Amino acid sequence: MAAAAAFAPSLLPRLQITASKGRRLPPSIQKAFRHVLPPLSYYGTTAKAESQPPSLPQQRPPPRSVAVRTAYELLGAGHMYLDVRTSEEFDAGHPTGAVNIPYLLRKGAGTLMSKNPKFLDDVSSKFEKEDEIVIGCQSGRRSLMAAADMQSAGFTRVIDVAGGYISWLENGLPTTIK
């Protein structure tokens, strides 16, 4: 039944619900089952689709996230660190050995930010799609978005750093200031 939650009710086929021995169930029960993907069998009740649901695009699982200590151990095992913070944030301090490619760029002097249109091109110029890459930002939000975009672009071994650079500092892990 958990799979049904991923579909919009309008995409589901109309269900024909019958009780055992071919009797129709009350309309209130039929209505309750219309949001469940067929076939459904529950205590002798079956549901059959009048038509097949439309095919939906296959979704990738979200990127894997790990704690900063695990990320640090992965770096020791040969993973590379991609820091997706702005260059100003990166210059103020970053995990030792990190490569900086901003995922978001500041618009003017304000605090508004927009996605770096060259992000994936810049990443592709520094990394191979099979490289083991740990991705971090300041708090963990940008890195998760960057990791998802990289996965969609075919990078197969990306891992998000949960908690970002803030958590990295809180755990006393090695940093470099530019």
TrEMBL record:
<protein>
    <recommendedName>
        <fullName>Rhodanese domain-containing protein</fullName>
    </recommendedName>
</protein>
<dbReference type="InterPro" id="IPR036873">
    <property type="entry name" value="Rhodanese-like_dom_sf"/>
</dbReference>
<feature type="domain" description="Rhodanese">
    <location>
        <begin position="75"/>
        <end position="177"/>
    </location>
</feature>
<dbReference type="InterPro" id="IPR001763">
    <property type="entry name" value="Rhodanese-like_dom"/>
</dbReference>
<dbReference type="Pfam" id="PF00581">
    <property type="entry name" value="Rhodanese"/>
</dbReference>
<dbReference type="InterPro" id="IPR052367">
    <property type="entry name" value="Thiosulfate_ST/Rhodanese-like"/>
</dbReference>
